[in-house]
């Protein structure tokens, strides 16, 4: 990752060795926390992280648009017009923020970064949601034919002292080490309704509710029951459809057990070895700390030698020792290196000025590259040996494709 204004490549930061356990966990990231604890408790911030994934940013935009529209469509306009107008506002706000934090990352305009197909599908999901919200009579606050009939607005009730009713209210239960912000908590006649909004389908191709959504809502229920013992809670997912998430005694016991495993793994106030928390896998592709993750740096070179008939075998990253220590081959823009798996690799588009300060024996690191060869080839994916740098990186910005100048690669680092 180049550093604007410095005119040189920054040193590769060391792999994480130990991380402090967080005081609380968030229900919204519980699934990711279980999948790879280090990805959520690393403690890194700002420019210590790799640039965000464009698809993840787009998903956040869709969710924020749905959230805003759920609290009431403007009168006098069609659902499509209202949804697209709000969507455009959120996109503009988000792009301005991304441009400030990650200039030159190739994330703006977002429509180009995610690609025409993803952009079109996302907008189509949003319009489908808006149309179904109107058909179900949920223009104001999600209430109507598809909502629980006994829900009343919190202001019309004398709420219990502890449970915070309303939209996006902060809920913190230190005894469970949980802290979150449900999209909506409403009080019914004899039950509390918790609704979480999603910008797309809430069920998978088999018709089952997505497990990550289920965990998030059930953790909210666990928190409210801890605040008000004996309270009855019903859980709702509101996306392209509105569905109820089951919440039984068996579900409660199973979730408490899983939460207990995390509490044991991450003792309050303690420090945990980063390597013990890292669980490398396909999810590493969008992980913003993989350049600091000891597990990824150890496993990725193994993946580079693998093949698959289903999907790419590893993120498009590479690191190793330059074959030509003086930088890119003159007149070609191609940088040759021996990667950490012992392969010969070429990276095109590396400006000579960026590699001019590279010293013999030092390692060059590239993250988020673009393949410069056909994938898959003859039906098989392998990790490319030919890459190219993104255009934004060639211009010297801090890009999704990231270039690092670092210490010699050793077994400890990879």
UniProtKB/TrEMBL annotation:
Signal peptide: none annotated. Gene3D superfamilies: 3.90.320.10. Pfam families: PDDEXK_1. InterPro entries: PDDEXK-like_dom_sf, PDDEXK_AddAB-type. Residues 24-294 form the PD-(D/E)XK endonuclease-like domain. Residues 393-414 are annotated as: Disordered. This is PD-(D/E)XK endonuclease-like domain-containing protein. It comes from Deinococcus carri. The lineage of its organism: Bacteria, Thermotogati, Deinococcota, Deinococci, Deinococcales.
